[in-house]
Amino acid sequence: MAHTAPLLSLAAGVLPEFSPEQTVAAAIDGGWPATGIWYDPATWTAATTIEVRDRAADAGVAILDIEVIWLKPGDDDPAHFAAIDAGAAIGAQNVLIVSSEDDPRRAADKLHRLGNHAAAAGLRACLEFAAFTTVGSLERALALLDAADCDNLGLLIDPLHLARTGGTPAMLAAVAPRRFPYAQFCDAPAHGPPPSDVGAIIHEALDLRLMPGDGALPLAELLAALPPATPLSVELRSAALRADYPDAANRARALLAATRRWFER
């Protein structure tokens, strides 16, 4: 049965070797209605903000998210708040957060502050869980969000990370729909490395994802478990895709075509 495609966004991770400005240009040239943007505090400037914002606005391309805020042990990182401010300045709708903070109480407090900062800036702050972070399951993510006690915090589901942490689409039924402002989308084999092999899990996540329909993840079930028309960030990090399409616009175009074919069939 064909599915009606929701808003599809080119995830920044599809183009890891390109700048934010080049990512927006590739999304426009590739026909995407939305894109994600990677924020690097070492290289982001006021000129980056202006060019990304204006290129996207002129083309009518939405900026679905800016990433990534990575929580680490220790004090709050000013760059995390700067990432949110940059996202607000370019018109991003969401900011993506992952955590390697090993103290659950500190992690909750940091998320609370970031969620409130994002709310004031007009973005949703979304926590993503993965086997290689300290939030290694859906259950742990939900517990952390509850502890953080901020209405602006969402939960970002990546179909690969959901599968590799033992989660299933059926488990999402217990989550409040408001937690899902958007989701990620990709395919992979049904089974991957064991969760204990962190290096292999990271390698799969960064280099081995498959085009929608080329793997065996329960993508239709996942979409059915999410609120209708949830926007999707197509997070297809793939060494093969990068090798086959060294040109950013061609890569973007090929990925959009493959994603649309999955929805059509």
Word description of this protein:
By secondary structure, this protein is α/β, with parallel strands linked by helices. It has 10 helices and 8 strands.
Give the strand line-up of the largest sheet.
Answer: 6-5-4-3-2-1-8-7
Major sheet size, sense and barrel closure: 8 strands, parallel
What coarse outline follows from CA principal-axis ratios?
globular
Uncertain regions spanning at least 5 consecutive residues: none
Tell me the strand percentage band. 5-15%
Helical content (DSSP H or I, runs of 4+): 40-55%
The SSE order reads EHEHEHEHEHEHEHHEHH
Overall mean confidence score, pLDDT: 96
Secondary structural class:
alpha/beta
Count of individual beta strands? 8
Number of helices: 10
End-to-end Cα distance, whole Å, is 6 Å
> What kind of assembly state do the chains in view correspond to?
single chain
Radius of gyration: 17 Å
Protein topology:
Blueprint: E1 8-10, H1 20-30, E2 34-38, H2 46-59, E3 62-71, H3 78-90, E4 94-99, H4 104-121, E5 124-128, H5 138-148, E6 153-156, H6 159-164, E7 183-185, H7 198-207, H8 219-225, E8 232-234, H9 239-244, H10 248-264
Task: Give a summary of the structure in a few sentences.
With 265 residues, this protein is an alpha/beta fold.
Primary descriptors:
10 helices; about 260 residues; alpha/beta; eight-stranded parallel β-sheet
